[in-house]
Amino acid sequence: MSKGFGNILKQAQQMHAKITQLQEEMAAKTVEASSGGGMVHVTMNGKQEILAIRIDPEVVNREDVEMLQDLILAAVNEAIRKSQEIMTEEMKKITGGLSIPGLF
């Protein structure tokens, strides 16, 4: 094995360790998103697991369940977007801005 290849392999192993650490750190981070002017709040961790959903009782209307569903969907999608944004920024720090397909 050449010295250059050994260095590349070592760098790849270090990057893998940093990514593993980042994944653990992301599990501890949370993002919050809301919709409907704050009527629906979603809290999600960096692993994109929903931790909590809060719904203002005023938005609960038996005659308009579809609106509530839309508000929940909007808040969840916004939380996912925020979580992905954080992960992308943190990955740029590890990879030096290098885009590596299939990492996330």
SSE layout:
Blueprint: H1 3-28, E1 30-35, E2 40-45, E3 50-55, H2 65-95
Antiparallel strand pairs: 1-2, 2-3
| Name of the top-level CATH class | Alpha Beta
- Count up the helices: 2
**Rough outline:** rod-shaped
**Largest sheet report:** 3 strands, antiparallel
Relevant CATH superfamily:
Nucleoid-associated protein YbaB-like domain
Q: What's the CATH architecture?
A: 2-Layer Sandwich
**How does the helix and strand content classify structurally?**
alpha+beta
The termini sit apart by 30 Å
Strand order of the largest sheet: 1-2-3
Low-confidence stretches: none
How many strand elements? 3
Q: Which fold name fills CATH's third level, the topology?
A: Ybab, Chain: A
Estimate the strand proportion. 15-25%
Helical percent range? Answer: 40-55%
Structurally, how many domains make up the residues? 1
Radius of gyration: 19 Å
Average pLDDT: 86
Overview in brief:
The chain has helices at residues 3-28, 65-95, and strands at residues 30-35, 40-45, 50-55. The chain has 104 residues and is α+β, with helices and mostly antiparallel strands.
Note down, in words, how this protein is organized:
The protein has 104 residues and is α+β, with helices and mostly antiparallel strands. The protein has one domain (3-95): 2-Layer Sandwich (Ybab, Chain: A). The protein has 2 helices and 3 strands. Strand 2 (40-45) and strand 3 (50-55) form a beta hairpin. The two termini are 30 Å apart. The model has no long low-confidence stretch (mean pLDDT 86).
